[in-house]
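SEQUENCE WITH STRUCTURE:
===
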Amino acid sequence: MADIESTPLVGGNNEKKKVSYAQGVVGKIKDNTSRLIDRGASLSSVYEDYSTTSTALLFCFSSILIYLVIGVTVFSYGIEHWSIIDSLYFTVVTFTTVGYGDIWDPTIYGQLFVTFFTLFGVSILGIALGILGERVVNAQEAALES
């Protein structure tokens, strides 16, 4: 137990000194924190705006496609047992927050699923439209400058 309470550390001038366990832990935390801050500073110099890359467009379109596939699959085969056309129609109406309510006779599981499905879909749509909108604005600014 004596080893846990006091740990010998090597000092700056190569002399050994005894430090309590708590002082050793605090010292390590301070060292690691300063290293993380240094790493963060170096990362900011190589930061690239994600929304201007072609990967962002691929991410937007694939997220929307995955959302539609999940909606059609769950409504057709999982919860409501609708036709694929009705499921696609309802998923798009829900995704765009139009909400006609013309084919909705919900089960309790359908209500729970749609609650979270709609929140997730609005988030996806907001991010995708934000990225696409930023690209359009950047393209217009570049066209005006040239």
